[in-house]
């Protein structure tokens, strides 16, 4: 059977291996993510979760294996090329321009879609201006979607932590991605901020139709949001399935013994 178009997973990793000077970060991981899926990756500290994200976004090049995004082999592509294909990412630590406003940070996220350089902008002012206006309109749509109206003209560095995380999410959305990678989206958040973020993550999947891969330590959030979960330990996938299947898997329980609670 030939798998094409909408049937094909958005992401396919097959037998990926990655080592750093003898330290095996990823040892033969394979998984796929569907086009309407919210897929979570869990595991103890140092299990290899961020390394998987770094492989998907082209920051690390695996020693072995295949990585396909939207049907395209992306193994040899550089991070900016993978971003241009439609993979957007948020980070464990906020990576925004603290002195710029919410709107300006969102417009920078849109940068991959503005197709003019400085000389072109000077030569074709009208065209550049139209691109700029379109970017601003897209940024305002994201402000509405993520309920950032109250903060839109504030420098991001002055905003509460949970709002900054939301702006970072908005900047990833500004790329109009085909896939969103969320690295610990609620780390360090209080309960209210976590609940807000959970709602936005679900809305992105359901209303914007963007599939999501999320690395997250908060098991409550993973249980509530994820369609499927892959648990990793020492660079290997030890269980993949529904959140309840994975949470009750004996290998997952023993991997977490001595680590944080699974409940
Ligand atoms: N750039 C690197 N150089 C050397 N070793 C690395 C590098 N990146 C990751 N590793 C190692 O690979 C292993 C997996 O690390 P990784 O950061 O992927 O784990 P993680 O599951 O994301 O951990 P955490 O939950 O603490 O963020 C660890 O042993 C780590 O020390």
What does this structure look like?
The chain is α/β, with parallel strands linked by helices and 263 residues long. It folds into 2 domains: 1-86 and 180-263, P-loop containing nucleotide triphosphate hydrolases (Rossmann fold, 3-Layer(aba) Sandwich), CATH 3.40.50; 96-176, no CATH class. 38% of the residues lie in helices and 22% in strands. The protein has 10 helices and 10 strands. The protein has helices spanning 49-56, 79-85, 102-109, 118-123, 125-145, 161-174, 191-206, 219-225, 243-247, 250-256, and strands at 11-20, 23-33, 38-42, 64-69, 72-73, 87-90, 179-183, 212-215, 228-233, 236-241. The strands form 2 sheets. A 6-stranded mixed sheet has the order 6-7-8-3-9-10, sandwiched between helices. A hairpin with a 2-residue loop joins strand 4 (64-69) and strand 5 (72-73). It is globular and about 55 Å long. The termini are far apart. The mean pLDDT is 89.
Element pattern in H and E: EEEHEEHEHHHHEHEHEEHH
Strand order of the largest sheet: 6-7-8-3-9-10
Name of the top-level CATH class of the largest domain: Alpha Beta
Structural class: alpha/beta
Gross geometry: globular
Whole-number total of structural domains = 2
CATH topology of the largest domain: Rossmann fold
Full CATH superfamily name of the largest domain:
P-loop containing nucleotide triphosphate hydrolases
Q: How much is the radius of gyration in Å?
A: 19 Å
Mean pLDDT: 89
């Amino acid at each position: 059977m030939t798998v094409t178009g909408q049937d094909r997973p958005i992401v396919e990793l097959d037998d990926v291996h990655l080592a750093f000077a003898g330290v095996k970060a990823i040892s033969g991981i394979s998984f796929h993510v569907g086009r309407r899926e919210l897929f979570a990756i869990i595991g103890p500290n140092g299990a290899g979760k961020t390394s998987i994200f770094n492989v998907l976004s082209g920051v690390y090049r695996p020693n072995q294996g295949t990585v396909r995004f939207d049907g395209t082999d992306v193994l040899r592509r550089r991070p900016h090329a993978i971003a241009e294909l439609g993979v957007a990412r948020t980070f464990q630590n906020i990576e925004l321009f603290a002195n710029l406003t919410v709107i300006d940070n969102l417009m920078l996220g849109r940068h991959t879609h503005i197709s003019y350089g400085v000389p072109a902008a000077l030569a074709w002012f009208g065209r550049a201006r139209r691109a700029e206006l379109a970017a601003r309109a897209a940024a305002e749509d994201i402000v509405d979607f993520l309920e950032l109206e109250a903060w839109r003209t504030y420098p991001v560095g002055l905003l509460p932590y949970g709002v900054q995380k939301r702006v970072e999410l908005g900047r990833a959305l500004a790329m109009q991605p085909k896939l969103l990678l969320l690295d610990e989206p609620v780390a360090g958040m209080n309960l209210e901020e976590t609940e807000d973020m959970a709602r936005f993550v679900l809305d992105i999947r359901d209303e914007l139709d963007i599939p999501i891969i999320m690395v997250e330590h908060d098991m409550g959030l993973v249980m509530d949001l994820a369609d499927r979960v892959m648990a990793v330990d020492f660079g290997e996938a030890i269980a993949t399935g529904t959140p309840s299947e994975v949470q009750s898997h004996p290998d997952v329980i023993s991997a977490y013994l001595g680590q944080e609670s699974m409940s």
